[in-house]
Amino acid sequence: MFGPATFHAAMAEVVVGTMVLASLCAIGCATATFLPGIAGGRLSSERVMVTMDKASIAGALLGLAFMPIAALSGSFAADNVVNSALLYNKFVYTGLAFGFWASFVVGRVRLGPGIWQHKSLSALQGATAAMAMLMTTMASSIGGKLVRGESLFDIMPVWLPSDSATVLSPIVSAALLIVGIAALVVVIRLGPKAERISSD
Amino acid sequence: MRHRVAVLAVIALLLATGASMANPGGEGDADRDFTCGGSCHGDPALSSPSDGTVSISVDPLSFSGTATAVHITASGMSLSGNRLLGVFLLGSANGNDDHPEDYGWGILQDPNGGTRNYVEVTVPPSGSVTLTWVMLAPEQLGIQTLLAEIHHGSTPNSNNWAYSSLTRGYVVDVQPVPENLPGFAFDWSPETRVTGDDSPTEIRTRNTTSVSIQWMLEGEWVPHDAEVTGEGDHWHALLPATIGETRIQYQVTTSNGDFSIVQPWLTVATEPAAFDGEIWGARIQSLAFGLLVMAFLLSLQARLSPWEGRPELDHTEEVESAEAPPEPPGLEPDQGYWSRLIPSDENPGWLWDPVEEEWVADPDNPPEGGE
C-alpha cells in the first residue's frame, strides 16, 4: 500500500508530462501559422501540423482528466489542511491551470483543426497553452518547494508570487464562483455561436 | 547529424538529474544524533572533511540545573550557493544517543529560538558564524563532554559530497548548585511569540525575590531596561513586539538577598502568524478563478472566430456601393474584340468568344443571378 503523497506525486507527473507535450505541440502549431517557412517549411507541412494538433489535444485531454485526481490526492496528502501561503497558492494555480487548459480544449473542439489556419485564433490558442503550462509548472514547483525546499523555478529570473497569498473570504470566493458560472453560461448559451472552421 | 544531436541532448538531460544533491535545501532544525544517526552523510564514500574550522566556547564550570551558554563558532567553510550550514551540538559521537539530553543536559533555547540540538543557518558573507545554545546543566555531577559538528555543501561539488567537521570534546565540570541560588525554574522554557505580538513575556524562576531584564535588538551594543512585574517566582516582562526579520535578545538577572545571577542572553523566539486560509476557501477560490479565466478565453475565441452574422465578414454593402473602376489605359477592349462576340439565346446576358473559346458577360445586358 502507498500513501496519498506518493499517489499524488505519480498523478502530478502524469499531468505535467502530458501537459508539456500538449503545450509544446500547441506552441509549435502557432509558430508554424505565423512563420510557415521556419525549419525549411517542415514545421508547417500538413503532416507535421496534423500530428502536432492531435498530440496537443490528446495531451491536454489526458492532463485534464488526471488533474482532478492529482488535486484531490494532493489535498489528502496535505491532510485537507491549508496551513501556509505556499499550499494555498498551489490550489489557486491549479484552478488557473484548469481554466486555461479547459479553454484550450473547448476552443480546439468547437473550432476544429482549422483553428491553426486562423492567425488570431492560432495566437490565442498558443498563448493559452503557454499560460496553462506556466500555471501547471507553478503548481508543481510549489509542490517541490513544500517537500524539498527547492524547485527548478529557483534558478529562473522570474518567479510568480507564491510566498504570500491573497486569501479571499469564502463568501467573496463563492460570489466569484457564481459570477464565473454565469459568465460561462452567457458566453456559451447567449453569445455568438463559434462555428467550426473548415480546413483548406 | 540531427539524430546524434538529439541523442546527445537526451543523454545530457539524463545525466543532469544525477547532478542534484540529496537535500540541498536543508532538512530543517531537528533533534539528531552524530551525522544524522549514521545516515548517508556518515558514509565515507558520500562525505568529505570540511575545510572550515569549528570550535566551542563554554564555561568549564557549571552548577547543576543552572543555565549556561554554549557558543559554537564555525568559519572558513567553502559553502554551496545557498550558504546553508547545519550545526550539531552533541553529547557524544557514537551515531546513536548522541543528543545532549541523553547525558542529562536540557536545551533551554537553540540559536533559532527552538529547543533542538541540530539547527540550520545561512552563513553571512563574512564566512563566520557563532551560534549560541542556552543549556541547563545536568543533575548528574562530574565531568560532562560536549561536541559540535558542522555539515555543509560546496560549489562546485562534482562528487555530491557532504562536507563535515567534528570538534574535540569540550569538558564541563558540573558542580552541585549552592543552596538558595536563584535561577530559572527547571520546567520553564522561553515562549514563542507570533510576529507583532507585544503581550508580556512570562518568566518563571526559583529562589528568586527580584528580577531585572535588559533587552536589545540583535547587533545592538547598548541594552535597554524592560519593565518587569510579578512576584513569587512568577514574572512578566514587557518586551517590544518582533516585526519582520528583527530579532530581540534579552538577559534576565535573578536575585535574592544572597546572590545575584546574570543569566545567558536569550532570544525572543518569533514565528509567523498562523495562516488564516482554509481548505474549502482555497478550493472555491481556485475553481472561481478557473471559471473566470475560462469564460474570458471562450468569449475571446468567439469574438475572433468567424461566426454567422459577424459584421466584418459581410462585405456586400461595400461591394455594391463601390463603383467599378475604369479600365486602365491601353487595356480597354477594342471594337474588333466586341464585334467578334456572338450573343446566345440560350444564355441571355452572355456573349461567346470563338477565339478565346470562353463566355464573356454582355456589358449592355448584364446576366442575372450573378454567375
Secondary structure: elements and pairs:
The complex is a heterodimer of chains A (200) and B (371).
Chain A: H1 4-34, H2 46-77, H3 85-111, H4 119-148, H5 170-190
Helix pairs in contact in A: 1-2, 1-4, 2-3, 3-4
Chain B: H1 2-17, H2 35-38, E1 47-49, E2 53-58, E3 61-63, E4 67-75, E5 84-90, E6 106-109, E7 118-122, E8 128-136, E9 142-152, E10 162-166, E11 170-175, E12 183-184, E13 192-194, E14 201-206, E15 210-217, E16 224-231, E17 234-238, E18 248-255, E19 260-262, E20 266-267, E21 269-271, H3 279-304, H4 316-321, H5 335-339, E22 342-343, E23 350-353, E24 358-361
Give your account of this protein's structure:
The complex is a heterodimer of chains A (200) and B (371). By secondary structure, chain A is mainly α. Chain A has five helices and no strands. Chain A has one domain. Chain B is α+β, with helices and mostly antiparallel strands. Chain B folds into three domains: 155 residues, Immunoglobulins (Immunoglobulin-like, Sandwich), CATH 2.60.40; 97 residues, Immunoglobulin-like (Sandwich); 35 residues, no CATH class. Chain B is 15% helix and 34% strand. Chain B is built from five helices and 24 strands. Chain B is elongated and about 135 Å long. The model of chain B has no long low-confidence stretch (mean pLDDT 83). The interface between A and B is large, with 56 and 42 residues.
